[in-house]
Structures are given as C-alpha cells and as structure tokens.
Specification:
Strands 2, 3, 4, 5, 8, 9, 10, 11 and 12 form a nine-stranded mixed beta sheet that branches. This protein has six helices and twelve strands. With about 240 residues, the protein is α+β, with helices and mostly antiparallel strands. β4 and β5 (about 70-80) form a beta hairpin.
Length: about 240
C-alpha cells in the first residue's frame, strides 16, 4: 500500500457504475422502499478450518453468525447490497448523486477499504490517476486522516457485526440457505423484493434452518464431508455461484 495517499474525487461516476454497494439493514430497507433491487451475497467458513483466513480470525468471527450445516456448524457472513449491474439508479445525467445527503455509508467511505486487512491500492479502484494526484491527504500509514471518515469506517464495521444475526434470520425466512465457502466464492441471490421488504419489516428470528455449502471442487467437498458438512455441487436454480 502506498503511504500518505492523497485523493480528490473527479466526479467521473465510475465508482457508481457496475458496483453492488453493501448496505446496512436500515439502508436495505430504504433501498427496497424506493424501488431498488437488493442482491444477497453469502460466504461461509469453518472455525479454524476450511474457508477461515487465520490472519483475519477476529474480523471474520465478529461479522459472521453460526448456523448448522449437516452434522457440523459453519459461520456465515451475509451482505445485502444495492444491485447495480450498470449505472446506479440514483445517478443523474451529469453523473451526480441524487441522494447524496442520504447515500449509504459505503458510498461516504469510498475509496477507503472497510476490511482492515485489505490495503488501499489506487490501482484496484476505478478512479482516474489524477484523483490520486490532488486533494487533501486521505491515508497516513494505514489510517484515514480525517477523523470523521475514520468514524464512518468504524460505524460500517460495527453495523456488519450488529446486523449479522438479523441478516441470517431474513435469509432463512426466505429460503436463502446455501452458501459458498469463503475464499472459494459467493452465492448470490436476487430475492423477490416484496417478500424481502416484508421480511425486513417483520425482522424474523432465526429458526435454526439447515444450511448447505456450494462447492464444485471434489477435493474440497471431501474435506468438508469429513467434518460432517453438507455440500452440493449441482447447478443452482435459485441462486448464482460466483467462484474465484
């Protein structure tokens, strides 16, 4: 990671095009109420086993929730995100955000990373080179310089932790109980939005539904079976498997 990065938005609109924006529970409610589509992304890991990055142990444990899987248990991390396969529905013809004052936390934080284990690398962002050649100092070492920005990053991380049990319960209520293994991919669901909005309002309690891991690699599936996990490699019908 480059030390002491500077940054100034050029207003190109690229960060608002082709990116699914992670949402807190409250933001997901607002997105659904305004007619937007939410995509649900799920990944799972076995504690101190397959899928768990040892160097991120504390971080992934805090933002995940335990669920039964076969004869064992996995922890799942669930992301509700604004579905933006093209231009964000809130961009106007001049690439300006029409909900700027109430835009999601992740939009306010960009281009800073939320995961404390992922370094900020300009080459991994869509911003043009000139964005990194002007403006105030953004990052010093590994920390945001602006205390308000640092507070937003912490708020986003805390929302991940506070919301996870409710997100899992909503997934179970809507039958979204197949996850990929962390590091191997995601499962992605596009829920029917009326049902999703209803679940968001009702806030169901998790019912201990049995979860399944989508794994296409036979060796990995065998390792999970040895731990008592239930897996599938069948072509999905109600979700997409996004492998790495």
């Amino acid at each position: 990671m480059s030390e002491n990065l500077r940054f100034a938005c050029t207003g190109c609109g690229k960060c608002c095009t082709g990116h699914h924006v992670p949402l807190t529970l409250d933001e997901a409610r607002q997105w659904a109420a305004s007619g937007g589509q939410v995509v649900v992304l799920i990944e799972a890991f076995v504690v101190d086993g397959p899928g768990m990055p040892a160097d991120q142990r504390e971080h992934v444990l805090r933002r995940s929730h335990p669920v039964p899987c076969g004869d064992g248990e996995v922890r799942v991390a669930v992301t509700f995100a604004a579905f933006n396969p093209g231009r964000c529905r809130n961009l106007d013809d001049n690439d300006l955000c029409t909900i700027y004052e109430t835009r999601p936390l992740v939009c306010r934080i960009y281009p800073v990373e939320i995961n404390p284990h992922i370094p900020l690398r300009p080459e991994n962002k869509d911003c043009p080179p000139e964005a990194w050649e002007q403006g105030p100092e953004l990052i010093h070492g590994a920390q945001p310089v602006d205390p308000q920005l640092a507070a937003l990053v912490q708020a986003s991380r805390q929302a991940d932790r506070d919301d996870i049990a409710a997100k899992v319960a909503i997934c179970e209520a809507l039958g979204m109980t197949c996850s990929a293994l962390k590091g191997n991919g995601f499962t992605a669901y596009l829920p029917e939005m009326a049902a999703f909005a209803t679940a968001l309002q009702q806030m169901p309690v998790g019912d201990g539904a049995a979860w399944t891991l989508h794994v296409s690699d036979e060796g990995l599936a065998g390792a999970l079976h040895a731990l008592g996990m239930r897996t599938t490699g069948e072509t999905p019908v109600y979700y997409a498997f996004i492998g790495f």
